[in-house]
Amino acid sequence: MIFRMRTNVLPVVRFIGQISYHQGWKHFERKADEFIVYVIKKGDMYIEEDGVRYHLRKKDIFFFEPGKVHNGYKSASCEYFHIHFSSLVLKELEFNNDSDLVNELRRRRYIATTSNCLSSELPNDSTCFLPKQYSLEHIDYYSNKLKECINNYEIRIENYKEIISTELLNLLIRISREFASDIIESSSNQISKPLHKATEVLDYINSEYTNKLTGEIIGEHFDSNYDYLNRCFKQLTGHTIINYVNMLRISKAKELILTTNMKFTEIAYLVGIDNPYYFSRLFKQHAGCTATDYYNNTMLHP
User: Fold this and answer.
1) How far is residue 132's CA from residue 187's CA, in Å, rounded to a whole number?
2) Do 300 and 234 reside in the same domain of the chain?
3) Which string of DSSP letters, residue by residue, matches 14-41?
4) Residue 291 belongs to what H/E stretch?
5) pTM given for the model
6) Considering only CA atoms, which of 193, 206, 205, 189 is closest in space to residue 235?
7) Which one of 100, 219, 226, 240 is at 20 to 30 Å from 38 when CA atoms are compared?
């Protein structure tokens, strides 16, 4: 089961805590009128919700849904965090099949990684996808964050619930991204080889654009023919590799022009362009004006 949650609305945390049962324990029966999240730090929990049985293990996160009866069906030792919250924007979502979910997650990831970071608009709509049960890779990170939330809850100074609710939203978004990455990676063997290769090239460029990038360097890195990589890349993005690299570099240059007082030659170097004359030509080609005009139009005459 997958939930869809709008990320522009805070969940409202009512209660948060940590429980540790060192001896065998079976969960009591309950029907809540709110969402409850369990994060298993150690041990096991055997839980049944509306007749469906789940085995929760160390590192698992699990969402109990409002209006559904849940109770334990087997005793076990367990240490876990629990967060009780209300949300009008967390809804169950049905996909026709697994490939629909994969395609949607891949689409959203592509839009995000190719978005203009200077734009005031969000690259995706304000939603994320969360599985009902999921194993967290970095359990220590989440445990530490949840302990901070519990500390805020117990101290109860001003705005403590807003802080906890904001942190919960942050954690859920992180879990959603981790889940999306797992789904995208696991589907790599199921998608076409050209599309998978193009995605790898896109990730590589987004992390290496400040370094020297030539067709030869990219081809050697992937141990593939550069023309083949270029065709795959254009099929995915609509741009050639070099054109995308230049677009990315000028986008980052715009960001530095707006947020620093560095010289244009320094900015050019930082985005991976050694030749200032080539930088000027590229900037005008992609921005439609010179770097000086861009600065004057955005900073002096906003």
Assistant:
1) 20
2) yes
3) EEEEEEEEEEEE-PPPEE-SSEEEEEEE
4) helix 291-295
5) 0.72
6) 193
7) 100
